[in-house]
Amino acid sequence: TVRIDFTGEPRVLTVSNQKGGVGKTTTTVNLAASLASLGARVLVIDLDPQGNASTALGVPHSADVPSVYDVLIDQFPLADIVQVSPESPNLLCAPSTIHLAGAEIELVSQVAREHRLRTAVEEYLASATDRIDFVLIDCPPSLGLLTINAFTAAHELLIPIQCEYYALEGLSQLLGSVSMIQKHLNERLHLSTILLTMYDGRTRLAQQVADEVRQHFPREVLRTVIPRSVRVSEAPSFGQTVIAYDGQSAGAVAYREAAVEIAQRASAATHENKGEA
Ligand code: ADP
Ligand code: MG
């Protein structure tokens, strides 16, 4: 078993890609569950009105449940809406409800509309009685105000890329938005991690796409790739991550390896910084 030291500053990652169906939600919940199984305390913020991350984490999110909507629009503290996933006491979720669908429009006329989530996360991390090691934000498939709130709140951007045709299409638009955010709203945000998802090693296409992405982003792409696996796609219908649903399956093993890489990269980066100082 791998032992990882989670003593650093909390890391806030936004899992984003304006394309739908590339594995954002699947990656968010399974990395979160993997990190939790390694001993980290992890908060998932479900920022997609679809609420798929809340479902996969087994957290109630019907219309009457206090949610991220109340945090963004009525400035509820995050602590008032966070629930513990039945899967692990280390796995927390700020659920999304259907109300979040209206937030994109309602935010337009609000003061500090881009900073609502960041303020809430900072207050939560400063006051959480238990330490938090990771915050993972699951974004909707758009570059609207919800995603801008995630970019403004996060330190790191994690992009899941599906090994398919047009994998790189839209990426320059995404990275363009990120540099606008860096310039105007959040200097700290940077692309730290790319994860190749739904990989089918039997097809030449998947290999070609993986090679191409690695050529463009040699430092960011994780060594681990997530295979296409039925167990991964079945798990949410049981209100579970694949880590709980079938921990021995290829998908679960891959997500745990990806989580180890992500956790270890942080300590490597910290050592580099210390070396330079
Ligand atoms: P997004 O959040 O980007 O829209 P999802 O995570 O919801 O994407 O994934 C889209 C679909 O692909 C879902 O039905 C999900 O179950 C399925 N899926 C994601 N990753 C895998 C995988 N590794 N193997 C098989 N199916 C997957
Ligand atoms: Mg999703």
Automatic annotation (TrEMBL):
InterPro entries, per database record: AAA_dom, DNA_Partitioning_ATPase, P-loop_NTPase
CDD domains associated with the record: ParAB_family
Pfam families per UniProt: AAA_31
Domain AAA: 11-190
PANTHER family: P-LOOP CONTAINING NUCLEOSIDE TRIPHOSPHATE HYDROLASE (PTHR13696), PARA FAMILY PROTEIN CT_582 (PTHR13696:SF52)
Protein name: ParA family protein
Species of provenance: Microbacterium thalli
